[in-house]
Design brief:
Layout (H helix, E strand, L loop, with lengths): L1 E5 L47 E5 L2 E6 L1 H10 L6 E6 L7 E8 L4 E5 L6 E14 L9 H29 L7 H5 L6 H7 L1 H4 L4 E13 L6
Parallel strand pairs: 7-8
Antiparallel strand pairs: 1-2, 2-3, 4-5, 5-7, 6-7
Helix pairs in contact: 1-2
């Protein structure tokens, strides 16, 4: 059995996975919070319990813990998040970051090839997005510039998802994403799927992630 649970700093009756958007008012340092885990976070819910991070279990044994970025990837793959905020490198300003507010456009498309003992898992995700904040001297005036930002966001998210996925397979060795449900469809008989030994095969999985982000609007600054 493989499953996950929300990480709370204090005891609570809240069992649902919750995620709080957070960031730093200093745009240059907005990345620093993404690697924190539950016990390191200053983020609290209304019930004074931290709402960030996911504990990963396998056969009732704790095998890992997800940080903020990994939690966002997990929730997106499971279609359990309505919107989220990330900071990506600004393609027009070196050493600067853009805060991007993303909303999943549809459910994650998952395809799994089990023709070899190492499953090949391909994900396609689409998002609509808005620029939430930017540097004071930024000027984003054209659709061409928005396309550049969209491509930068795509690359960032693809790397984020891949890092998380390989952590789940190589480090945690736990299919908390529920990919096995999709893999089972490749087999005519239940016994064939059992013989494939999905939980063991998942440790050798390969991943391909394709992200398409469309920035429909944003905080566009007009020159005067």
């Amino acid at each position: 059995m493989q499953y996950c649970g929300g990480i709370n700093k204090d005891n609570s009756e809240t069992n649902s996975l919750e995620f709080s958007d957070f960031g730093d008012n200093n745009n240059n340092n907005s990345q620093k919070d993404y690697n924190i885990k539950a016990n390191d976070s200053s983020v609290e819910g209304e019930n004074k319990v931290e709402n960030i991070g996911v504990a990963v279990f396998k056969n009732d044994k704790l095998v890992g813990e997800l940080n903020a970025l990994e939690t966002m990837a997990f929730l997106n793959i499971r279609n359990k998040i309505d919107r989220f905020l990330i900071s990506i490198p600004d393609p027009l300003n070196e050493n600067k970051y853009l805060d991007i507010y993303l909303t999943p456009k549809n459910s994650t498309n998952i395809k799994i090839d089990t023709s070899t003992s190492s499953p090949y898992i391909k994900l396609n995700c689409e998002f609509t997005a808005q620029i939430y904040s930017m540097t004071d001297d930024a000027r984003y005036l054209s659709y061409e510039i928005l396309d550049i930002i969209s491509n930068s966001c795509n690359k960032y998210l693809e790397a984020m998802f891949l890092d998380y996925l390989y952590k789940s397979s190589k480090s945690c060795k736990s299919d908390i994403n529920g990919f096995g449900i999709f893999a089972a469809k490749n087999f005519l008989l239940t016994d064939n799927f059992k013989d494939y030994d999905w939980l063991e095969s998942y440790k050798d999985a390969f991943f391909d992630v394709n992200i398409k982000t469309s920035i429909k609007s944003g905080m566009l600054i007009s020159e005067t």
